[in-house]
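ok trying this again, last paste got cut off
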Amino acid sequence: MFGKHETDVVNKQLKDTYGCELDGKPKFRVVWSEGQTEIRVGEHKVFSESGKIWLRNEYGARLCRKYNYVKNMFILEKLEYYRNPEVLRTEAGSYEPIWVFRDGEGNALDPIMPACRIIIDSNYYNKEKETKGDIVRADEAQKKSDFDYNLDVIQNNSPYLATMMHNKEAKFQDSTKEFKPDEMHSGKPSSLPTEGSKTGNVSG
């Protein structure tokens, strides 16, 4: 399962590969669609407490879901510095979507680093499309990077375990494989109205 740890690994690789802007923000990042919000300025529909009866339209600022057109998917974003008058921001720059990780049937896909590189390189760096061999080699490099990242975490939190791994007395267990016992010894909350609330229900 692709979770927070795996997303952190990919974002670290994106930062290491493509760098940061002058303000220190990574040029690219991967985020989970749920939980991403932004303050939108404009006309919003207000519904009854049941959410079924339209009452009126109101103009103002509302805290809304950033990605209300997708659900439970990973999104590759690029840092941009153009100003959108419909979105209130407290700082310069905003991350804008460039790719939703889903297949042709709308099923969610994992944002693996080789896929991120193909999307970014072909669209922003004028690089040729990669071959299957390039992707395999990139995937092997990612596995090594993942191992190094995990080892750094362990060294910071458990030097004893890190020493065992260095001496090959312990190893990472691949969470995508079935574990067999006999293999063990082998080898800010906002005060703004939110989208979807009951009273004064808003749709952006």
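PB: full thing came through this time. The chain has a mean pLDDT of 75.
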